[in-house]
Design brief:
This protein is α+β, with helices and mostly antiparallel strands. It has 3 helices and 3 strands, in the order H-E-H-E-E-H. Strands 1-2-3 form a 3-stranded mixed beta sheet. Strand 2 and strand 3 (73-78) form a beta hairpin.
Length: 95
Amino acid sequence: SYAARQAYVSQRMLLVEQSLRMEQKLRRGAVLPVDGTACHQGATKQELLKALLALPGAKLHYFFFLDPSTGGVSRVLEEREVVARILGEESEKKG
């Protein structure tokens, strides 16, 4: 079970790398489909990881964090920034 989950996470990380390559193409002027996911402002690392693992791999993806008091978007992160946030929190706990 653990090995299967690890393989799944590895596969999703490869898709994130693919998304980063697509982002580079976008910066060069290529047209890419973009998608977004709404998250509540206090989303936990586990909630973000669950949302990240459910993403389709062929799009540049953004996370919109919603402020429940106003209903508006408080900040927007790219998929790679969410991954860095998740992995950064992991390395802080180990270090």
